[in-house]
Design brief:
Blueprint lengths: L5 E8 L5 E9 L4 E6 L8 H9 L5 E10 L6 E3 L1 H18 L7 H5 L5 E3 L1 H55 L3 H17 L6 H15 L2 H19 L5 H21 L3 H21 L4
Parallel strand pairs: 3-4
Antiparallel strand pairs: 1-2, 2-4, 5-6
Helix pairs in contact: 1-4, 4-7, 4-9, 5-6, 7-8, 8-9
């Protein structure tokens, strides 16, 4: 089991002195939502990075940040073709609009893409290094999510233990319900009839109807089956957060239906405690991938 909350980091240094730092952090989200933060000239790496993260992360909002710090001693090159295109475009625009035609070397060198520092020689190597470092950061990130997942599993197991104990109390509290309903109904009818002989057949029929309406056997059985399935999902290796969330909703539905059928105060109290534990389970499951 993994948590959707995690943090990972990896750093690397290229032979030309370029420093790489990649960090990943995540929070809860219904689906995988990856946000990439890196320089525009690394845009070609977006698809490989998304594929890399998607192979490990199933759900969560993930922020991946790529920081590149180049050495000041890197090779410098000037793109003459780019500078010429800038000059030609400005010459045509200045003639059309009547603007000053002078364009100094300083103006040209300050334009994007004219001066390149170490990019031509190290571009391919930089891309490979970014992907390799991202894989290391992702491994660190995944390890932190597994550690968080172990803590989550411990908390969820404790809640499931409480739910199993609670549904056991519910099962005990409903034992002898028909007999108690019969005694209560006899007492009420006797008070209302004031000495009139009771129709035992009609009384038995009413008891049967009341007992059927108050019967929560199906709810208890389904509740226990959902608990068994929840434990099975927790032992699995695949992302189970969505299915656990559905199970938690089903557990809440069964507990709520049983509460509506409950006709005795002790059973109602036990079911209220059960619903409280189901809510705690739902809250913890929101962190499971």
């Amino acid at each position: 089991m993994k948590s959707m909350t995690g943090f990972g980091r990896a750093q690397a240094a290229l032979p030309d002195g370029t420093q790489l730092s990649i960090t990943l952090r995540s929070v809860n989200h219904r689906f995988l939502d990856l946000s990439l933060k890196m320089r525009d000239d690394l845009g070609a790496l977006e698809a490989p990075l998304r594929k890399l993260v998607g192979a490990t992360v199933a759900r969560g909002h993930v922020d991946l940040s790529v920081r590149v710090t180049r050495s000041t001693g890197g090779a410098v090159s000037i793109d003459g073709a780019a500078a010429a295109r800038y000059a030609e475009a400005w010459d045509a625009l200045s003639k059309e609009r009547g603007l000053p035609r002078e364009l100094t070397a300083r103006d040209l060198l300050s334009l994007p893409g004219v001066v390149r520092v170490g990019e031509d020689e190290a571009g391919e190597a930089l891309g490979g290094a970014v992907l390799e470092t991202a894989a290391a950061a992702l491994a660190d990130f995944d390890a932190s999510r597994r550690r968080e997942g172990e803590a989550l599993a411990t908390a969820l197991t404790a809640i499931l233990d409480r739910l199993e104990a609670g549904i056991g109390k519910v099962s005990e509290a409903r034992e002898g319900l028909a007999e108690r309903l019969l005694a209560q109904l006899r007492e009420r009818v006797a008070k209302l009839a004031d000495g009139v002989p009771l129709d035992e057949a009609r009384l038995a029929q009413e008891i049967a109807l009341l007992a059927d309406r108050a019967d929560i056997t199906e709810e208890v059985d389904r509740f226990r089956a959902h608990l068994v399935e929840a434990r099975r999902l927790m032992r699995g290796e695949h992302a189970s957060g969505k299915r656990l969330d559905v199970l938690a909703q089903e557990l809440h539905r069964e507990a709520n239906t049983a509460s509506q059928k409950a006709r005795e105060l002790p059973l109602t109290r036990v079911l209220l405690d059960l619903k409280s534990d189901v809510e705690a389970l739902k809250e913890q499951i929101q962190n499971v991938e």
